[in-house]
């Protein structure tokens, strides 16, 4: 199937009032997501809403336009479709925050309550999206995971008051737990700062990330987490040390692996250790690291958009480090000692 033009896709969306995907494989079906992949301070919007209802920010000194949120999403969809040409790709789940409002010049003296819809302008400072490839699934115990990809764009990381410069994006490809929609992201499937000046350059860099991602290796690493257990005492020790971490001196932190999660996350992890229906402790109080990892990624859903992916990668690193610590060979032993 040939790539559809942006104009044709927009026309189709206008007819159907649904978001249609630009891809070289089979076009999107109804998503099997039933839970949001991120929750904190975000609203769910459609790709069509970004294209039809939002203005595009520019760099103030030269009026050069930025790469719009919808262009980022379309770029990722087209690239991943080329890498997986025979797979369906679900409609993107798009979450936004920090709406920036404005008004048209003819509304300069109109009270806010009297503004007409066409006189209001908006765009979103921060945007995150995720897309499932439901035909590529694996099993970890009783949990099914599916390949997914997505990204984050945060205009607050750009200097929009200057001339046009390289723009920053975050992109990932990994797995999503279909039980809870937690994202499973490892460092080899994540680019924390893609710098691009054009749509074409952005597509090339996304393609590099997808090409380098070892899907089977990440699946094996996730699956192996089920072989390592923490006792209730060890779990409590770990959480206690994690709460202490942020109060350590710089010198002490230098000898300990980085920890991006915060006290709010740890409170959620502690609660779900007892109450989460899918990832709580067993009858003896023990819990395997696959469940611990999902407690971390579940708690991470409360992170803001601009820190969400980085903390997701950090959660994976923590789980990997703890598995080595249980075997006696890891800097993460500090969290269990």
Offer a concise description of the structure:
By secondary structure, the protein is an alpha+beta fold.
C-alpha termini separation: 57 Å
Question: What can be said about the biggest beta sheet?
Answer: 7 strands, antiparallel
- Amount of helix: 25-40%
Order of helices and strands: HEHEEHEEEEEEHHEHHHEHH
Number of H- or I-type helical stretches: 10
Structural class per helix/strand content? Answer: alpha+beta
In terms of DSSP E residues, the strand content is 15-25%
Enumerate the spans where pLDDT stays under 50 for 5 or more consecutive residues. 1-34
Mean pLDDT: 89
Per the principal axes of the C-alpha atoms, what is the gross shape? globular
Q: Give the beta-strand count.
A: 11
Number of domains: 2
What is the CA-based Rg, rounded? 22 Å
